[in-house]
Structures are given as structure tokens and as C-alpha cells.
Amino acid sequence: MSWVRDRLLDKLHYLGHQSLNAFARLGRGSLLLLQLIFAVPQAIMRWRLILQQIYSVGVLSLLIIIVSGFFVGMVLSFQGYITLVDYGAEESLGTMVALSLVRELGPVVTALLFAGRAGSALTAEIGLMKATEQLSGMEMMAVDPIKRVLAPRFVAGLISLPILAMIFSAVGVLGGEFVGVGLLGVDGGSFWSQMQASVDFRDDVLNGMIKGVVFGWVASWIALFEGYDAVPTSSGVSSATTRTVVHTSLAVLGLDFILTALMF
Amino acid sequence: MAEINQSRFLIKITDLHFSQRGRKIFDGANIEIERGKITAIMGPSGAGKTTLLKLIGGQRHPDTGSVEVDGVNVHKLSRRKLYALRKKMGMLFQSGALLTDLTVFENVAFPLREHTRLPELMIRDLVLMKLESVGLRGAKNLMPAELSGGMARRVAMARAIALEPMMVFYDEPFTGQDPISMGVLVKLIKKLNSVLEMTSVIVSHDVAETAAIADYIYLISEGKVVAKGTPEELNRTDSEWAQQFMQGLADGPVPFHYPASDYATELMEPK
Ligand SMILES: Nc1ncnc2c1ncn2[C@@H]1O[C@H](COP(=O)(O)OP(=O)(O)O)[C@@H](O)[C@H]1O
Ligand SMILES: [Mg+2]
Question: Which residue, among A146, A163, A120, has the nearest Cα to A35 in the 3D structure?
Fold first, then answer.
């Protein structure tokens, strides 16, 4: 029976190893987050670097955000209309579309798209810089890569994601109007006035923005950490990129549940 | 005279022990590098030459033993002081390590922009001077991806000397170069060493080129210094190991093969 024991021990050993690895990664990740936070004030002094990053992280994500926002708004409007019309409540269509977008879909879908578009690119960029010794080279030139390379990207992510989420929601409302008012014949006046009457700035818009900020924080942190912690080879960078998208998506969905439970 | 206080050696490595992932890389190495000279550290691939440079630069920590640069122990410095010391070191990485999103000009300007507050015009002049000294002033607007391997290494060299460091480390500067750029690099290293009076350390396994410009050579193998001396001394030495390495012979005390079972047996073995 000794082989059974050996295999059990093997499995146990493997499990222990994996959990140790996970804890070590969590530790390194938290350390990096602290270093990033301490580097933010200095990064802000060099706003030019941040602007460049807002361009590549934010502006280059605009197209996918606008197109997706419009489609999500259109679909919401279709589905909402089908349900609401049974109750003769199709005037509330605007409210329904706007609330779904501002409270939930805006920040969440934006964060998921951000992970795929900008997060993966950040991880790949940092990982490749590590693999080609650019980060190591900076250290030898007495330049701290966390301050010079990572921090500006972190700040850019923090700023970009909430703004992208707002744009997503705004475009989504337009998509909703296009389908609801334009195609399905809901009265335009009540579409807008009901929306204005029932969407609250503090409860809905501000809470949605807070979600955007939290997701921006988490998405940039995970993307930068995966790149910085990547095994410096091509396969290491590619698996780090995959992990960024998977971990960010899971983290965003989990956090959204918690935030929603706390806020609404 | 300030020189009276200075020791003859800029870098002193004493009884260095270092292991990585359970593998011993250094096992009691002693190396001294003289000011203003070109010192070569040679050894087979995987001997730990790159690791040695990282130890000197403070990117790796020795298990025991010490690394002193200009009279201070590198691994006892605070982060701030270590960074200050690194500004006096220029490092030419094996891969060049140029920043891929910056032009050649901006790569050379990078250390100046990060560490000085010089006006733009002065930075421009300094960068052009450094690029001129490596013969690449005309390539200033190219991106690193547009450079050949030899050009990239020369740009990296211009960047390494941008802050006029006290010492420059070259990691395998000759590997993978065609004969012409090899000649250019050899001349450049010599010129930089004599004109700028920098202490130069070349880490390499290219025996002929390195021996041609080195003032002093250390041969390392299996974590220890196995031979040292001027190129002439090493050529005349009766150490079998040094002879094998200097002449580039495949057979000798250094095995060419990684330890393995008998070749014929393994070929005949059923799967
Ligand atoms: N980051 C690392 N992690 C683990 N082992 C490494 C690492 N870098 C190098 N090594 C190992 O250390 C040894 C020395 O490497 P290196 O200093 O690069 O040798 P050299 O430059 O002389 O060819 C090699 O056996 C290499 O496999
Ligand atoms: Mg090497």
C-alpha cells in the first residue's frame, strides 16, 4: 500500500506548494500596490508621462467602449420594452435603460472590456520590458521602474476607467433611445422626462462612478502586477496576459456584487 | 593629492559565495579591479559572469562575502545611496536593453533627463556628443527595432556613458557581432577607457578579442577564480585549465559535455 501513501503525499505536497505560491503572490501583489500608492504623488508631478498613458490606456479604448455601449443600450431597450409593454409601462423604458447602465452595466462591462483591451496590453508591455531586461536596465541606471514605468500607468488606469464607464453609459442611453423611441415608437418626451425624474445623481450616478474608480484601481493593479511578476520569457508573458484578463474579470464581478449589496 | 587616499583598486570582491535556486554560482571568489584599467572576467557560459555584474550593481545579494566599490560595501548601502552609486556605474547589458518605445536619441537622453535638470539645449549637445563618439549621430531618430545588433549595442554604450560614470561594465560586448562591428567595439572600449579615464570591466567568453584589449584577466569556473594575470602571463601559464580556455580547445579539464550516461548505451536503449 505504500504507493497509495506516496501518491497521497505527492498530492499533499503539490497542494501545499500551490497554496504557498498563491500566498507569496498575494504578498508580492500587496507590496507592489503599496509601492504604487507611495509613487503616485511623484508620478503626478510628471503629468506628461500620465497623459501619454491616458492616451494609450484610455483614448485607444474609446472605440470599443462606444460601440459596445451603443449595442448594450439597444439590447436593453428591446428587452425592456418587451417586458414593460405588457404592463402598459413603456414610458418607464428610459428609466430602466438608464438605471441599468449607470448602476451596473456601465462600470462592469467597461471594466471587463478594459481588462481585455488595456489590461492585457499593459501586462504584455511590462512583461516584455522585463523579459528584454529594460526594467533591470533602468534599475542599473538608478531609475526605479515602479516610479517611472508602473506608477504613471496606474494613475492613468485610475483616471480612465471611470470616465470610460460614464461614456459607456451615456452612449448606451443613446442606443436605448434609438431603439425605444426611434424603432419601437415609445414617446420621446416621456422617455427622457421619466429618466430625469427617477435617476438620482447621488444614489445612482455617483455610486456608479465609485464603482468605476474601484474597478479602475483593481484592473490596473492586477494588470501591472501580472506584468511585473511575469516569468521573463515569451511563454511566461503570454500566460501572465491571460491571467490578467481572467483575474480582473473575476475580481470585477465579485467586487460588483459586494459594492451593489453595500450601495443599493 | 586626492589620489593618496584612494586605494589602487576600485572594486574589491572578497570571498564571494552566492547561490541561486539551490545552485552554487560563486564559491569563494576573490576579484580585485584596478582603477583606470580594463579588466576582463572570462569563463564559459553559465559560469556566472552576468550574475557577477548584478552582484556588483547591487541587484543580487551575496550569501556571504563582500563586494566593495570605491571603498563602500555595495550590499550595506541604503536604497538611496545604492542608487547614487549606480549613477557612477555604466552597464552595457548583453541584450542592449534599450527602451523600445523611445528613439535612439531619447534612449541616450534618458539618464540625463532622469538625473539632471539640464536645459534641453545642453541635453541635445551631450546626446549628440555621445552618439558621435559611437559613430551613430546619424541614427538619432531611429527606433531600437530599426537597429542592427551591433548598432543597438553601440547605442547602449552611448547611453551607459551619458552620465560620464566612473566605471563601465560590458556584458558580452562581442558576442554575435560581425568582424567589422567587433573591431569597432574593441576600438571604442579602448578609446572610452583612455579618453574618459573610466575603469572598464569586460565580461566575456570571446577570448581573442577580450585578451587583445584587457590589461588584466580573471578566469572563473565553477564559482572560483581558476587563473588570473595579464594576457601574456595567462598565455604562458602552465595551468591546464587556463591553456584550454585561452586556446579554445574542446578537450581538457573543462568538459564539453553536460554529464550524461554513456552515449552508445543510451542510443541502443529500448524506449
Ligand atoms: N534569474 C535566474 N534565476 C535562476 N537561475 C539563474 C538566473 N539567471 C541565471 N541563472 C543561472 O545562473 C547561472 C549563471 O548565469 P549567468 O550569470 O547568466 O552566466 P554567464 O553570464 O556566465 O553565462 C546559470 O547556470 C543560469 O542558469
Ligand atoms: Mg551572461
Answer: A146
Q: Is B25 in the pocket of ligand 1 (CB under 6 A)?
A: yes
For ligand 2, the distance from its centroid to the CA atom of residue B95, given in whole angstroms, is: 10
Least Cα distance to A211 among A258, A250, A176 occurs for: A258
Residue B7 is given by DSSP the state -
Helix (H) or strand (E) holding B23: strand B23-34
Which residues in chain B have Cβ-Cβ distances shorter than 8 Å to A143?
110-111, 114-115
Q: How many Cβ pairs closer than 8 A exist between chain A and B?
A: 51
Mutate to test the pocket of ligand 1, among B41, B50, B59, B170 (most ligand atoms within 8 A of CB): B50
Is residue B100 within 8 A of residue B144, CB to CB? The reply is yes
The span from the CA of A53 to the CA of A185, in Å, is: 43
Nearest CA to ligand 1 atom 2: B20
Q: Over the stretch A63-113, which tens digit does the pLDDT of each residue have?
A: 999 999 999 999 999 999 999 999 988 889 999 999 999 999 999 999 999
Full DSSP string of B116-152: ----HHHHHHHHHHHHHHTT-GGGTT--GGGS-HHHH
This model of the complex carries an ipTM of: 0.82
B100 close to ligand 1 (CB < 6 Angstrom): no
**Three-state SS at A258:** helix
d(CA A139, CA B86): 8
What are the residues facing B29 on neighbouring strands? B16
Q: Are strands B199-204 and B38-42 parallel, antiparallel or unpaired?
A: parallel
Pocket of ligand 1 contains residue B47 by CB under 6 Å: yes
- Rounded distance from Cα A21 to ligand 2 centre (Å): 28
Provide the whole-model pTM. Answer: 0.86
**CA separation, residue B213 to residues A105, B38, B124, B182, B188 (Å):** 67, 7, 32, 12, 11
Which letter, b or e, does each residue of A76-85 get, where b requires 16 or more Cβ atoms within 10 Å of its Cβ?
bbeebbeebe
- Contact of B143 with chain A, judged by CB distance below 8 Å, is answered with no
* CA–CA gap between residue A54 and residue A125 (Å, rounded): 15
B186-218: pLDDT as tens digits: 888 888 888 888 899 999 888 888 888 999 999
Q: What residue type is B166 in one-letter code?
A: M
Q: Which of B86, B146, B191 is nearest to A137 (CA)?
A: B86
Look at residues A125, A66, A144 and name the one whose alpha carbon lies nearest to residue A244: A125
Question: In Å, how far is B100's CA from the nearest CA of chain A?
Answer: 8
> CA B33, B37, B38 angle in degrees (round to 5)?
85
CB proximity list for B32: less than 8 A, separation 6 or greater: B9, B11, B12, B13
